Prior knowledge:
Order of helices and strands: EEEHEEHH
Largest sheet: 3 strands, antiparallel
Strand content: 15-25%
Helix content: 25-40%
Distance between the termini: 74 Å
Amino acid sequence: MRTLNLDGQPSRVVKYKYMKARAYASATSTVKLGVSRQVVIPKTIHDQLGLRPGDYLQVDVADGRVVFTPKTLVDKRVDRRIAESAEDFAAGRSYGPFESAEAMVTSLRAHVRARRGLRKVRR
């Protein structure tokens, strides 16, 4: 059974034993808002976006439409690393300032060599 959606594009029809045939468009679908404000993302869109259970979505309203944007938790990792960096700086574990990038690289390499030398002594 071949049907066309409103844009004239072919849509696929899915038949289930317990319900009427439903036509799914390739990019748009109609879903029902649940009692507890839950929205079920159709499997085709879910798979197309590579979403997994537990993923976060940012929800915005744009021109009277609800827009879901997949989000990653990179922000939390970045915040944690910035906090660690601030702790290191407060504890005096910092280098510089340097006159140039070459001076910074030279200093860091010397520090790594010194740490490697300390490790050999400890063994």
